[in-house]
Amino acid sequence: MASGPAGRAAEEPPSPEPPAEQKPPPLPPAQEEFSFLPLVHDIIKCMDKDSQDVHQVLNELKNKFQEMRKLISSMPGIGVSPEQQQQQLQNLREQVRTKNELLQKYKSLCMFEIPKE
């Protein structure tokens, strides 16, 4: 008979919001957002028509370039030098080689029964 405050506390649902460090990363933008070709096409059409909208479309293109620069600068690993990347790649390849060797050793011990298909 939990009719007091302790009984109500046990019935409260947990908060639906996860802690800040567990939030998933934002989804990448759709591929169309990376294309500059439609804006360039619009600029060419405006220039052919001697339209006054060319400045507006040029500003849209400029803004698109600025957005892409921000996106690129926020990418993980963008500050890693090519030499550091090569070193990381070499380390990872060495780990894979070592793990493959260990796997072969374990398989040769015949401690595991591997079903044959």
In words, what does this structure look like?
This protein is an all-alpha fold. The protein has a domain at 32-75 and 83-109. It is built from 4 helices and no strands. The chain has helices at 5-11, 37-48, 54-73, 82-108. It is elongated and about 80 Å long. The termini are far apart.
What would a concise description of this structure say?
Residues 1-32 are annotated as: Disordered. The chain is mainly α and 117 residues long.
Helix/strand/pairing category? mainly alpha
Q: In angstroms, what is the radius of gyration? A: 29 Å
- From the N-terminal CA to the C-terminal CA, the straight-line distance is 58 Å
Count of alpha/pi helices: 4
Average pLDDT metric: 76
Mass-distribution shape? elongated
* SSE succession: HHHH
Q: In terms of per-residue confidence, which ranges show pLDDT below 50 for 5 or more consecutive residues? A: 1-24
Major sheet size, sense and barrel closure? none
Strand content: under 5%
Number of strands: 0
Proportion in helices: 55-70%
